[in-house]
Specification:
nine-stranded mixed sheet, 11 strands, two-stranded antiparallel sheet
């Protein structure tokens, strides 16, 4: 039984670094590609939004003397590079993909057309959304929330380094308590960081569930789509 038939997987660019300080670790790239392939083989429709923090973050721009808007566009280009890498890794495994960019660059990616993206999913292709929303001042979290709602995804799966949402940073506070489930209102009242507020509000207004989980643990994705309790579920 499959509980979630169409999912949007949100990956951070930093997760692609692995043990490196910059760039793409081939082991991590293949790890994600293999997990996504397993979902496709189960009959799950998969869309992916990936960040670009392993290459460039727009928020770093001002410190380097680069205008904020220009820096944000540079960050969007970084997500395209990561999207191309993931596309190549998936196709090496025999998975059909489509790389879609919110900024037109027809030599390497399709432009974003909602109905076409949905049709790709219906045909069993993995759709990789790149370039964020195509506009500055919006994070890839916001892009994930926007695209997930537009394609009528059943859930956003946010892959992180920790196994859910805690009352504090578990890597810094050993007394932090993990939550299995939370409501949107509870997340706000406790001041927990799940996604940026723009993205989180968009999910809340459209009642789109978010599952925060450890992406580095094998089989977690498969267990989630089967309906098992993995990570932390935010809904309602």
């Amino acid at each position: 039984m499959i509980r979630y038939k169409r999912v949007l997987l949100k990956l951070s660019g930093e997760s692609l670094m692995g043990e490196n300080r910059f760039g793409i670790d081939p082991k991590m790239l293949n790890h994600y590609a293999e997990q996504i392939k397993e979902l496709v083989e189960m009959g799950v429709q998969v869309a992916v939004v990936i960040g670009g923090g392993n290459i460039f973050r727009g928020l770093q721009a001002e410190a380097a003397g680069i205008e904020r808007v220009q820096g944000d566009y540079m960050g969007m280009m970084a997500t395209v590079i990561n999207g191309m890498a993931l596309q190549s890794a998936l196709e090496t495994l025999g998975v059909y993909t489509r790389l879609i960019s919110a900024i037109e660059m027809k030599q390497i990616a399709e432009p974003y057309i909602r109905r076409r993206a949905i049709r790709h999913l219906e045909k069993g292709r993995v759709v990789i959304f790149s370039s964020g929303t195509g506009s500055p001042y919006f994070t890839t979290d916001s892009a994930a929330a926007l695209r997930a709602n537009e394609i009528n995804a059943d859930v956003i799966l946010k892959g992180t380094r920790v196994d859910g949402i805690y009352s504090a940073d578990p890597e810094k506070d050993p007394t932090a308590v993990k939550f299995d489930t939370l409501t949107f209102a509870k997340v706000i009242s406790l001041g927990l960081s799940v996604m940026d507020m723009t993205a989180f509000t968009l999910c809340q207004e459209n009642n789109l569930p978010i599952i925060v989980f450890d992406i580095n643990s094998p089989d977690n994705l498969k267990r989630i789509v089967r309906g098992e309790q993995v990570g932390t579920l935010v809904e309602g």
